[in-house]
Every structure is written in C-alpha cells, then in structure tokens.
Request: fold
Amino acid sequence: MNEQASPSDAELAAIARGIFDAQPFTQWIGAELREVGRGRADIALRNRPELRQQHGFVHGGVISYLADNALTFAGGLALGGDAVTAEHKINFVRPAVGDVILARASVITVTKSQAVCQCLVYASDRNGEKIVAIAQGTISKAHSR
Amino acid sequence: MNEQASPSDAELAAIARGIFDAQPFTQWIGAELREVGRGRADIALRNRPELRQQHGFVHGGVISYLADNALTFAGGLALGGDAVTAEHKINFVRPAVGDVILARASVITVTKSQAVCQCLVYASDRNGEKIVAIAQGTISKAHSR
Amino acid sequence: MNEQASPSDAELAAIARGIFDAQPFTQWIGAELREVGRGRADIALRNRPELRQQHGFVHGGVISYLADNALTFAGGLALGGDAVTAEHKINFVRPAVGDVILARASVITVTKSQAVCQCLVYASDRNGEKIVAIAQGTISKAHSR
Amino acid sequence: MNEQASPSDAELAAIARGIFDAQPFTQWIGAELREVGRGRADIALRNRPELRQQHGFVHGGVISYLADNALTFAGGLALGGDAVTAEHKINFVRPAVGDVILARASVITVTKSQAVCQCLVYASDRNGEKIVAIAQGTISKAHSR
Reply:
C-alpha cells in the first residue's frame, strides 16, 4: 500500500487485494480475501485433507497462518500502508472441523506506526459457525521493521 | 503417544515421528522432524518460492506453523503423550530469508497435564544462522482439550 | 465461588465480591470491583502518585495487575467457580495518565474448565476515556491448576 | 538512560538503578534490583501478606509486575536507553509461595529500537527455588512509544 495522500476506501481495498494476490504462500494454500474495510479483514480457507493434522482437524499452524494474515491486513488497512505482524498471540479453543475456516480481524487501536488488532477464527459448516481460535497482535508499518 | 508405563527415549522418539508423519499438512508443506528428545523438538523446512510473502521473505504464517508444531512436539515429548497446543505467542524479529528455516523448541516446565515451552526459529544459509522468531506456548495432553 | 447447582446472577456477583474483598493485594492497592455479570467484570483503580513509574505514568505492572484480575473475574464468572489466570498477554498502547484506570474484561469462549477472555484497559479523566492496554488470557477453574 | 556515546557497563548499571529508584510504584511495593548486566536484570520482592490473593499465594498481578519490570530493564540495558514494555505474555505455572519472588529477565534479540526478552519468575525458600511464571515481551526505546 502506498503512502501518498490518503487513499479512499475503494483504493485501499484494491491495494490490499493486490498485496494478498502477491503472496505466494497465500495463493499456494488457497486462502481467499473475503472482506476488507478500514481496519478489518476477513480471510477464508476451504477445508481440504492436506490442511489437517493427525486427528483430522485443521492443523493449528494453518489456523495460525489465517489469524496472522488477517491481523496483518486489518492492521495494514488501519495504518494505510504495507504492514508486517510484529508479534501475535493465539488461543486455540476448539478443534477446527467444518467446511470453511474464516479469520475475522479488526483493529482495536492505531497510532502512526502501529496497530493492535484482534482476530476471531471460525469454523463453519451447514449447521453454523463456531469460534476455534482467538488472536491478538501488533502490526507495524513495513518500513519500520 | 500412548500412556502405558513410561516409554524409553527411543520409543518416545519413534512415537513422535509416527505422529509427525501422520500430519497431512506437515507432509504437504514439506517439514522435517530433525531432532527429538525428552522435552525438545527441532523441525526444519527448506525455503521454497511458494512459502513466501509479497516481499520474498518466508511468510509469517509458515514461521508460525513451524513454531506451533515444534512447541507441540516438545510439549508432547515432555508430557509423554499425544498433545495439542492450547495457546502460543510469537515475536517476529527479523525477515526470514535463507535456505532453511529451523524451529527449535524445548520445555521449560511440565506438570501432569500441561507443559510450557519456548521456541527459537532460525533462518540459515551458508553464512550462518539468525533468529527470526521467538515463541512461547502452553501444550496440553490431547484428551484434555 | 462454589459449584453446587447453578447460582443466580445475584449470587454469583456476591460470591465474586467476596473473593475480591478477600484478596489482600487488591485491598492494599485499592482496586474496586465496579461491575460484574456472567462473564464480565470491571475493575477500577484511582490514580495515585505511588502507582506510577519514572515518567509519571501509571506503572505497566499496575496495568497488568488490573487486566490480570479483571480477566480472572470475568473468567470465573463465566465458569461459575473460583478461578485462576493460567496465562495472559497484554499490549500497552498509550501512556496511562488520568484520574481513573478501568479494566473491562469479558469472556469470548468458555468450556467446562477454561474460559478465554479479553480485556480493554482505559484511562479516564474529565475529558473522556482512552484505551491504554489490551489483554487476552486463559482462565482455568482453580482446582485444575 | 542517556544516549550519548556508549556507556560502560558500570555506567549502564548506575543509570538502571537510578531509573529503578525513580519508580514510585517499585518503591511502594518494595521491589529490589538485584543484578543488572547488558541485557539482563533480576528483580526481587520479599513475600508479605499484603501481596497475596485469596488463597494465600502471591497475587498474579504482583508476579506480572515483577516480570514486566524485569523485562523492561533487561531490554533497556540491551538497548542502552530508557525503555518501555510494548507488550508481554506471561504463563503462570505454579502457585507462588515462599520467602522471595525473583524475576530474572534476559534479552534474546535486539535491534536499534526494540528488544525481545524472556523472563523466568522463581519463588524461593530455604528448600530451594521453583519456577512460578514464564514471560516473553517486546521492549521499545522510550521515545519511540
């Protein structure tokens, strides 16, 4: 995301999608940027056999990736610039089963150079959705890393 | 990992390798269980283009996966049973570049049902290795989840 | 908090207040249990010179205490029993100045033995309130520690 | 801590002690800066009735304060300047009983503006010492907050 003037919401969303599409790992794992707004981002991933651990649940590392990436995009959209996750913390509260895993992140506070964001990760199927993980992290402007 | 008697170190290592090999995501991403011991585990991943983010560094989500999995194995090996990561926290301290990413986890304290472990994640190439991330987490016996 | 039957909200609040009043440190530091509900607790502390660090802001350790205690009470009220904080994470986002520091915690998910809670800490004066810290933690039933 | 030239270890220790003594909360709670070095700090607190929670253990908030402050000093001593804790995470692994609580922090990595530190908190009596908590946090130079 560029830092000239103040981009409109639509411009910001377009920039976020551009960065998302430029992440090889994100493309490889098959994640999808569902929704973006100023300070929020939803990233979804369809459950597939190769994303699982030994008990058939989606691997915690996949959940971590989704939370990490949603936090980064929510923070970057709040900061209005390319961003990195400086640190995060995640609680896994329930085995992740279902058709789709959705990480929904939003900013809590933002300064010039940092945003603190929270993220709920849901697993959903036709019966509804359940929270499987809860994360909190610090997102920094990319150049300040 | 079974809970009969107290397995020998070699048995414990064999059980850990069995669980590792039974994780579809771990196989898919190509991680390798390098070293295991009572309360410690090293997991490595060769850097490949599809593991990267938009700036060419290994994606933070991949680093998170490695730390998460190393923490789980270190904790499971300390607990002597199949284990899950209940929660963890990770600091990304340097962009991850290099040939190999190595997550090295070890237990700090262990009770009957929980272990608290720390993990250093290194990126290495022919010039040496550098710490790229630092993690701490709680590992619980699998049945207590 | 006892575990017989299911206590009413009023009983639960009374039990929480009893535990709060039985904490010597809480009495010594002068904290006040403002509000309690099923899965939420607000704890306030009037800013005094002896609570500060070298720059005149409320010490981060005091903010940590408030968040820690609010998380424990929110979790205990959700679990319906005496509880301990197993772990938490806190981000300090702004120097804490003002007349009153308020930690407002609420439960996000709860199982039989554990709750994951979040907490916002505010500093307020006559001009309004500002978030100074954001926390997330795991609260366990006391006997399971 | 000033940022002229590079202070000697003895100067750095003296500066750290000056800041420690200038923290009203630290004086009020009665903490003691035991040891300092480049990137490490030990802070101790004698157990007293007013530091406890409802079961007679040292309150988790007191443990958090000790870890928080030890992390800040370890980080500040690594950064060579006045520092603040940007965030930290703490696991409470055992009830804190004993005569003295000691938080021992050391730096893991440091850049120009930030240090990531870890801290073990011990409770000790005449029979020895036990780990009661484990923390990890980010310490930033004070002016960059």
Remarks:
- Residues 13 and 58 of chain A are 28 Å apart (CA to CA).
- Helices of chain A lie at 9-21, 24-29, 60-79.
